[in-house]
Amino acid sequence: MEDGRYAVSIKGVVFNEPDRVILLLNERQEWELPGGRIERGESPAECVVREFKEELDIAISPAVLLDTYLFEVIPRKHVFIVTYGCQLAGVFCPKISEEHLQACTFDVNVLPVNLPEGYRNSILTWHSRRTRA
Length: 133
Hints:
- This protein is an alpha+beta fold.
- The chain is built from 2 helices and 8 strands.
- Belongs to the Nudix hydrolase family.
């Protein structure tokens, strides 16, 4: 049983093409947004930049806070998720780290079934905001 303290994970939504979002396949066979746990002394924006560099070896720039919510990763294990809408800050030539099984881009209109709802909502929100701008 949890004691009310939760890990904090900062995630980023990045489109490498107008309608294609970058996702990573984790060990639970779920697609997820790139990102990870915030470190002491690090801002959320610094965290998401670092995590994209570590997980995909790509540079990004956080643009806007999209969402925050408590996510039940596995039964009775929750993580506080913060999602940012981000922009690529260089060439898209990802090199996947050992943290994930696969990296792939998906059309925003055909997102995988095994993508948690919170991530899906953040993707659709950022896509909508970008296409209106």
